[in-house]
Amino acid sequence: MPRQRGRKKPNHWAEDGGWPYACLSDDAPPTAHLMQAVARRLREALRYKSTGDPHRITGLEASQASGVSPTTITNIIHGITWPDADSIARLECALDVDLWGSEHRRAKGASRSETDPT
After folding, report:
1. What is the per-residue burial (b if ≥16 Cβ within 10 Å, else e) of 51-81?
2. 117 has a pLDDT exceeding 60
3. For residue 22, what pLDDT band results from cuts at 50, 70 and 90?
C-alpha cells in the first residue's frame, strides 16, 4: 500500500489508555474509530483463540493463513498503520470474525459523505 505523507496514524487520536482501548479525542475522524474497532477485534480474536480454544491461532498462524504479514498484523493492532480492505478481508476469512464493524458510522461528527458512498 502506498505511503501517504502527512497522514496521521490511527493511534494519533488516542488520549486516555492504551490503543486499541483508549478513548479517542473529540476531533478523531470516523476512520480512526473504525481502525480502533478493527484493532480491538483483531487483538481479541487472537487472544481468544490463544487461550484454550481448540481452534486457537497465533499471530504467525493468522499471517500464514491470511497472507497478511506478521508485521502488518502487529501494526494494525497497535494503530501504526491504515490497513487496506484486502488485508482486513483476508484476516476476516482466516480468523472467521467480523473485523470491520460499524463504529465509524456512529462516531461523533460523521458526515454522510464519510459513511455512505452514494
Report:
1. eeeeeebebebbbeebebeeebbebbbbbeb
2. no
3. very high
Domain borders along the chain are: 10-104
- Tell me the CA end-to-end span of the chain in Å, nearest whole number: 25
Rounded-to-integer distance, Cα 91 and Cα 63, Å = 8
pTM of structure: 0.77
Q: Which CATH superfamily is domain 10-104 in?
A: lambda repressor-like DNA-binding domains (1.10.260.40)
DSSP string, 24-55: EPTT--HHHHHHHHHHHHHHHHHHHHTTT-TT
Q: Is the separation of the CB atoms in 45 and 117 below 8 Å?
A: no
Please write the tens of the pLDDT for every residue from 27-37: 999 899 999 99
20: preceding bond cis by omega (within 30 degrees): yes
